[in-house]
Design goal:
Structural class: mainly beta
Number of strands: 10
CATH superfamily: Immunoglobulins
Shape: flat
Strand content: 35-45%
Number of helices: 1
Radius of gyration: 22 Å
CATH class: Mainly Beta
Length: 164
C-alpha cells in the first residue's frame, strides 16, 4: 500500500470522526421509560381537566388554539412518551414549566417529550388550521398523547368546529 493512500485514509477517518462528533455533541439520550402497573400504589396518574372543546363556527382561514390542562396526580413522574395528531391540519405541543416542546402532528410525530413531576401540571396545546386541509361543515380533530400511566396510556384531546 502506498503512503499516499494510507495518508488519505487516515485524513478521511479523522474528518469523519470530527463530523460525527459535531453532529452528536450536545444530544442527550431519551431517558428510559419507567413502567408501572395499574396495581402500583406509587405511580403516575394522568388527570386531564377536560378532553374535548367545541370551537363553534369558524372560517376556513381561521387558526384556532385550544389549551388543555394535564395534571400528574400521582406520586411518580408522568412521562410524556409521544405526541401526534389525527390530521396534518392539527398540531399538538406540550408546555411544561415555561418550556415549549416541538410542534407535533400526524406527519411529525414526537417520541419522548418530558417528565411531569408529581402534583405539577402541563399544557397540551392543540392548534387547528382548517386551510391546511380544507373541509367544510362539522369537523372533529384530535391530538394523541402517550404516557407511562398504566390506566391512561393514550389520552385523546379533541376539538369540534363548524367550518364555513
Amino acid at each position: 500500500m502506498s503512503s499516499k493512500l494510507v495518508v488519505t485514509i487516515v485524513v478521511f477517518s479523522v474528518v469523519m470522526l470530527v463530523f460525527i462528533y459535531f453532529i452528536t455533541a450536545g444530544q442527550k439520550p431519551d431517558p428510559s421509560v419507567v413502567q408501572f402497573s395499574a396495581q402500583d400504589v406509587d405511580r403516575p396518574k394522568a388527570e386531564p381537566t377536560q378532553l374535548f372543546a367545541n370551537l363553534g363556527e369558524i372560517k376556513v382561514t381561521d387558526v384556532k388554539q385550544q389549551d388543555f390542562i394535564l395534571k400528574n396526580a400521582g406520586t411518580k413522574s408522568l412521562q410524556i412518551l409521544g405526541v401526534s395528531s389525527s390530521c396534518g391540519c392539527t398540531t399538538g405541543q406540550i408546555i411544561y414549566k415555561d418550556n415549549e416542546s416541538k410542534i407535533y402532528s400526524m406527519h411529525a410525530q414526537g417520541e419522548y417529550v418530558t417528565d411531569i413531576a408529581p402534583g405539577d401540571t402541563a399544557i397540551i396545546r392543540l392548534v387547528y388550521r382548517p386551510a391546511t386541509m380544507p373541509v367544510y361543515g362539522l369537523v372533529e380533530r384530535e391530538v394523541y398523547v402517550t404516557t407511562n400511566d398504566p390506566l391512561h396510556q393514550k389520552l385523546v384531546f379533541s376539538i369540534k368546529a363548524k367550518v364555513t
